[in-house]
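Late entry, evening session. Most of the bench is empty. Finally got around to the prediction I had been postponing all week. Sequence below, unchanged from the version circulated by S.P.
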Amino acid sequence: MIFPYPIEWPQYFTATIKDRLPILHADKYKNIITDSLHFMVQNNRIEFNAFVVLNNRVHLIWQPLPGHSLFFIQRCFMKFTAQQIKFALKDDHNLLMEKCRVNKKDRQFQIWKRNPQSVELSSQQVFLQKLEYIHYNPVKASLSLYPESYPYSSASFYETGVDHAKMLTHYTG
């Protein structure tokens, strides 16, 4: 099945912390990610279908809504979350913060690895494959026994239909 052509296709998006540092290990840092996503949904910037926040990366399925470009959504997400993580690291983990120090003209610190991955999901088959991949990541990373028991994932939403975060749109195909 091919989706009717939208302004922007749903996107599978992966952002990884520079040098795969486990910065997102603590819930405080995971909440920065989910709060940012919640803001974008509430402000009608994205339709949001799936996510998982792991210790050193995030995987998302989202789609920019009319009036918002994919480039703008990704840039805002990366910039805002990096800034918030940096502020929190200054208060909590000075040593980890120093591992993020870079010698660049435009910045002193870098949280996210450059060039996140973004893949257009123009078929139901690829969408469902990425959805399953996202949901099984915490099991594969030994963070949970079952996909739906990991709290920083949309797997329980797809299992129960209850959106505790109040930001997800259920993909029905």
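Two things to note before I forget:
Strands lie at 11-16, 46-53, 57-64, 117-120.
Residues 1-5 have pLDDT under 50 and may be disordered.
Will write this up properly tomorrow.
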